Amino acid sequence: MKPPTDTFPTIASILAPEALVKKVLPCFGIGVVKDCQFYSGGFNHTYRILSSKGITYYLRAYRSKWRTLADIRYELDVLNHLKRKGYPAIQPIPDKDGHYFYAVPAPEGTRYLALFTEAPGGEISYDNEPAEKAQRYGRAVAHMHNALDDFSSPHLRFHLDLDHFIDQPIRNIQPFLVNRPDDWSYLLHFSGLLRQRILAMPADLLEQGTCHGDLQGYHANLTPDGTLTFYDFDCGGYGFRAYDLAVFLWCCRLEDAVAARWQPYLKSYQETRHLHEWDEEAIPLFVCARYLWHMGVHTQNSPDWGIDFLNDGYFNAHLNDLRQAENDYLA
């Protein structure tokens, strides 16, 4: 049997750095590129660029089935809005025609690219003075929310709502639990209880606005003068501000750092920006939502990432996290 002569279908390609240097980066006017390396995978593909002037940039190649062009343009609008506000976040760089995204024909379909400045400093660490770092982070998040209060974009993007946190994850997880009926029943119980508790707040009283979506306590570089510059707004959108705060608590739980970080973070946020008592009460509920969302994005992206890690050990651990969160916050 002869091999096929046409291009074989692909799910997600890795764009060649050499081709990016030759065909894409000259369009951005950053001068001679000294080095371009594939930096990281994950939700999207990131390349680290070094110019002959010694300036570092990061090029993101969005995965074709992960974000729509409208999603991407919304994210770029957020960053340009923060730039106008003078808020420290990475900045998208326009090409020579003034466009902030660039399309390339990849084997799996059109891939959209965006070039960003580098956040100065090194990634924030809590190894030393965790309470002070958490305070600084909480204050910066409050200022971010203040800066985004008047943000708007003509581009449609997904909302951080109950469909995003509950319904979509459940649909994505279900095929992986067909042989674990008791766990599937528990997942339905957990998601139903969570939905009921959020709606009973009531949900329509909770503050909503543009959110970063992944403020774990990281995704920010810290300079010696104490400035935090934020990046990676890929999971953001319009939604519950309590969720944006809950992601920090969720990560504290993962790192056994609730006692050291959570109250300093929350207090500094409240000292900088008013937080309604019902929004504070909703934070634990959105910690539960984050656990569910996290499983959902793993299963959702399994066609690109593979299924090997989605084994019994994975589901045992993550379902145990759900049960612990229910015991702590939903009981």
Describe what you observe in this structure:
There is one protein chain. This protein has 331 residues and is α+β, with helices and mostly antiparallel strands. The protein has two domains: 101 residues, Phosphorylase Kinase, domain 1 (2-Layer Sandwich); 209 residues, Aminoglycoside phosphotransferase (APH), C-terminal lobe (Aminoglycoside 3'-phosphotransferase, Chain: A, domain 2, Alpha-Beta Complex), CATH 3.90.1200. The protein contains ten helices and twelve strands. The strands form three sheets. Strands 1, 2, 3, 4, 5 and 6 form a six-stranded antiparallel beta sheet that branches. A hairpin with a 2-residue loop joins strand 5 and strand 6. The model has no long low-confidence stretch (mean pLDDT 97).
